[in-house]
Amino acid sequence: MGSAGTVLEATGVTKRFAGIVALDDVSLRVDTGERVGLIGPNGAGKTTFFNCVLGLLRPDRGQVLLEGRDISGLPVHARARLGIGRTFQRIELFSESTVREHLLIAERTRRGDGRLWKDLVGRGRPRPDEIARCDEVLGLLGLADLADEPIERLSLGKGRLVEVGRALMTDPKLLLLDEPSSGLDREETAVLARTLQEVQATHGFAILLVEHDVELVSSFTERSYVLDFGCLIAAGPTAEVMASDEVRTAYFGDVEVAS
Ligand code: ATP
Predict the structure, then answer these.
(1) Distance, CA of 49 to CA of 102 (rounded, Å)
(2) d(CA 143, ligand 1 centre) in Å
(3) pTM of this prediction exceeds 0.85
């Protein structure tokens, strides 16, 4: 069972795909307010693990607990309602809609409001309280000036922040970040990391980060887990994990790791 302060606890998660053991008895914990990395080479099982937490996949064995509650049998939307937020690598909605509209959709999802996003530009005008909540999140993310911009005009870095904003609208207890640095340059990655840290300090949610960018994982996370061929091969403070011979051999090959 999760101890007080534990947001996510996965125990013994095992998932097979037609003969491939994508996850083999993986246990992982994320505590309140923590930033935890999940790293590993291509095909190590990171996405499969994320999907087991999100509810997109059901593990063959093992449990997923959110704040001590077993959510293993719940569908994606129920887990989202209970506080699991996520970002996507690419913005999934319509490029001509504005930054604020993207957040409004998330807000309505959170409230279980049945109106579709299309209603936002037609009949179902956003209420003042909905707009206020959007603008609060946009302000936190430094996006206030871009509220009325169409998504297609934003840089990838800003678009990634909008993705974070959408996730924040659902008031997550746990935010799953799937390679947030993908496609971003160093500066955009640094801005994203800094903004996430600032927002996290205000909101207190926990973060589980899947990421290839070693520099980001090293600077952003306090603890990390390393998967290789579906097995956890290391866990602990990120600096120690990155320095371990086993991890360097399995994951980095002869790549130099920034200290
Ligand atoms: P990457 O860094 O490349 O995204 P990953 O660590 O996320 O890799 P997964 O995508 O979780 O790894 O894949 C783990 C293993 O499970 C791989 O061998 C992959 O081919 C296999 N796998 C994942 N999803 C499926 C599926 N739906 N059907 C069959 N095999 C799958």
Answers:
(1) 27
(2) 34
(3) yes
